[in-house]
Amino acid sequence: MIKVHNLAKAFGAKRAVDGVSFTVERGEVLGFLGPNGAGKSTTMRMITGFIPPTEGTASVGGFDIVEHPIEARRLIGYLPENAPAYTDMTVFGFLNIAAEMRGMRGDARKKAVNRAVEMCFLESVLHQSVETLSKGYRHRTCFAQSIIHDPDVLVLDEPTDGLDPNQKHEVRQLIRRMGEKKAIIFSTHILEEVDAACTRAIIIDRGKIVANGTPEHLRQKSEWPWAVTLRVSGINAAALNQKSSHISVVKLTAILREDSTSVTARVFPRNNLNGSLATSIADAAQGWRIEELHTEEGRLDEVFRSITMPDTAASAAK
Amino acid sequence: MNAWSNIKTITKRELFAYFTSPLAYVFIVIFLLLCGFFTFMVGGFFERGEASLVRPFFDWHPWFYLFLVPAVGMRLWAEERRVGTLELLLTMPITAWQAIVGKFLASWLFLALALAMTFPVWITVNYLGSPDNGVILCGYLGSWLMAGAYLAISCITSAMTRTQVVSFIIAVVVCLFFILAGFPPVINMLESWAKPWLVDTIASFSVITHFDAFQKGVVDSRDVIFFLSLIGFSLFTTSVILRTHRAG
User: Can you give the C-alpha Rg of chain A in angstroms?
Assistant: First the structure.
């Protein structure tokens, strides 16, 4: 549904987006990650046709965003950053105007507004002025505007920004549910959201895509995928070290913490064993009092850090 | 057809915005007070002893509009930019042109309403004597066209900035130029040193020169074209500014 090819945007000498290419199909939810100022919003603004690209193209549903902007925009629902809305209108009035701008009249409009209001839980504030709404409600009002015409493509710029944890959860559920039938692209810098809602994630840094894959795939870029964290009581560090070095698949054992009653260590596998290291350790550790044993799948925040800030992450590792 | 319904939607939303804020009511009240005061007190409506609205009423309009129309137009784009709704508006399946025309029409209709509210002056003059109502109607038409020209200029300045006050000030300055270019004292001063063709060229850019004929009851196509082309050019400039702003 969304095809982005070599998209670039220069503001003066600065290239905010520098040759970004990706595609999103129907049924996919693409998480767009990156530090602030990495070019996430700029990319989304180009896809929705708000700013023209300096180079490259993008098409939505087969319509080029530069040559057929109106047809392309018709397919898109867009939630801009900071969720702007006409503050002088009521929620009801605002949604009605949004539906009308989407070309809906009469009964179709009424139905569309009701549906959006229901999906975004806006009944209680329907006749309140947007100006008086709390941030969460205002956000949901703008979100309702973006889904009012039941679009095939949704572009959401930080849809959970400023919401409380319950609302965040609701919005993620909503995105996930809608993602089954639509092509969705949403930006965030909350990494749990990638796990909660995405089928695929892209990490963008300084205008370039630095990683693209499923959340599992990204996690394995971690420095220690499939390492095992182990806590044993009634044994000292030296004994643990000695024992683990006898296990053939162990490459390295790092002691994380040692106190009078227990030792915590992280054991790294010699090569990618897909989680079987824990079994080997459990087999070898007969007679130990194991209090904790689990396999690290790799953590997204760490991957994110190591990809977007290579220098700092490297120095932190030392 | 489709374009027209988009324009109507935008116009409706803008008109709604005027009447939900106090601005509309304040504007209409001030405009009517000014009209009343200047027509009857300063303009010497009664002392003239003639049943006409030309000098005592319409003569003041270019000057009222100088301050009032930029106040009506200043929020059109500046507010959208400040709040961020511009991004919403321009990513809807409507063209920038439809948005520009829709917004302009809303403000112009609003000014038409304010102008129509001066009907007591018209009733008064009809009650006291028997004026040429054709000339009065013509004056109203000219006044409305002139307001449209000021408004289109305010659209440009509003699209240039996200601060309404800045938009207001620049619009007043530009509109002042369009008045002064044909203001008799300025023309007299120019005539003392400039060549006649230059004076004529400058004066032909003035709204006063073109409004004058309307006041006398003459609808000259050149005057109508002047106002309409000023509106068209200004709206085009607005679209260019909006586009370059987005292009970064």
Answer: 24
- The two three-digit tokens of residue B98, written as one number: 């439809």
From first CA to last CA, the distance across chain B in angstroms is 33
Query: Given an 8 Å threshold on Cβ–Cβ distance, is A70 in contact with B248?
Result: no
**Beta carbons of B88 and A145 less than 8 Å apart:** yes
Q: Which residues pair with A110 in a beta bridge?
A: none
- Nearest CA of chain A to the CA of B178: how many Å? 34
Pair A5, A57: CB distance under 8 Å: yes
Q: Cβ B248–A145 below 8 Å, yes or no?
A: no
A–B interface: beta-carbon pairs under 8 A? 74
User: Which residue in B2, B5, B12, B13 has the most chain A C-beta atoms within 10 A of its own C-beta, making it the best mutation to test that interface?
Assistant: B13
- Closest approach of A92 to chain B, Cα-based (Å): 13
Most confident stretch, A214-218, A222-226, A238-242, B13-17: B13-17
Q: Compute, in degrees rounded to 10, the torsion defined by CA atoms A242, A243, A247, A251.
A: -40
Q: Which of these CATH numbers, 3.40.50, 3.30.70, 1.20.120, 2.60.40, describes A228-295?
A: 3.30.70
Q: Does B95 sit within 8 Å of A78, measured CB to CB?
A: no
Q: What percent of chain B has pLDDT over 90?
A: 54
Going from N- to C-terminal start, the domains of chain A cover 2-213, 228-295
Q: Which residue of A has its CA nearest to B5?
A: A103
Kindly report the pTM of this predicted structure: 0.85
Name residues 62-81 of chain A within 8 A of B (Cβ). Answer: 70-71, 73-74, 76, 78, 80-81
What is the per-residue pLDDT across B92-138, written as a single tens digit (0 to 9) for each? Answer: 999 999 999 999 999 999 999 999 999 988 898 888 888 888 899 99
CATH T-level topology, domain A2-213: Rossmann fold (3.40.50)
Please state, in angstroms and rounded to a whole number, the distance separating the CA atoms of residues B206 and B183: 8
Reported as a pLDDT band with limits 50, 70 and 90, residue B188 is confident
Q: Are A57 and A64 in contact (CB under 8 A)?
A: yes
Q: Which of A11, A67, A78, A86 to mutate to test the interface with B (most CBs of B within 10 A)?
A: A86
Nearest to B84 among A10, A48, A84 (CB): A84
Distance CA B181, CA B172 (A): 14
pLDDT tens for residues A266-304?
887 776 666 677 777 777 777 778 888 877 766 677 777
